[in-house]
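Worked example

This section walks through a single chain of length 156. The input is the sequence exactly as stored; nothing has been trimmed or padded.
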Amino acid sequence: MEVRLEKATDKDAQSIFDIQVKAFVPLLHKYKDYETNPANETVERVITRINNPNGVLYKILTDNKLVGAICILWKENLQFWISPMFILPSYQGKGVAQKAITSIENLYPQAITWELATILEDQRNCYLYEKMGYNKTGVSKKLNDHATLIYYKKTC
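Given that input, the structure is written out below as tokens.
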């Protein structure tokens, strides 16, 4: 399965937003994180990510089909932050996220560090990031009685 990244444009915003909602609604229902879950964002937030001068929103394409997106932000073009990354539920568990992370890291070989956050209770995501070489930083933030945000970092 071919996975490639392509910079998103404003005309992609609605399609990306629709996938974002589909990807995050199950987590919203499971963890009841109504404050920070991307399923509760607006399409305007996607447009803001697309046009952010300190980051890039990439479409994740599998066999030329839009199946997700990955947003990166940078500080001094050396420290990178991934947030959010999401894949359509029907494409999850098929290696798409792994290939997207590898591709994004290869696009920015100057990176000293990569960081991200995920829900501690979502063992599937934690397993993915640890498999990709990300380590828990020890920093966490309790979102509610159902979810804790945990931070990861990968030093290059």
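What to look for: The helical segments are 13-31, 43-50, 96-107, 123-131.
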